Amino acid sequence: MFDVAPSEFLLVAVIALVVIGPKDLPRVMRAVGRWVGKARGVARQFRAGFDEMLRESELREMEEKWRAENERIMREHPAITPPMTPTPIESSAPSAPDAPAATPQADPAAEPGQAPAPPVDDAQGKLL
Asked: What is the pTM of this model?
């Protein structure tokens, strides 16, 4: 940043010792050190803010490029969906080929429009 040769630094130190005096020189050097530290902090914050803005700008540009490329790919290769065809619904319960299928029989005492009563085992009174 600043190119200060050792001979130039020695010359500044001798002039400061003569002008300020040996008694007040440590206090002045501490104050100068604080000011230099504050200046470096401000420069660091400025650089960090500038780098952040640069990263956000690059990220925004990359997102725009990706979006444009994605749109181009989607135009060139549209999604092809197969036509919807009905499929037969199969029963999930296994059926025994030897056993006769249970068919509900109409109850003569039931009124028209009512569902038939479930079959009941006469010996124990349980539903079949």
From this structure: 0.42
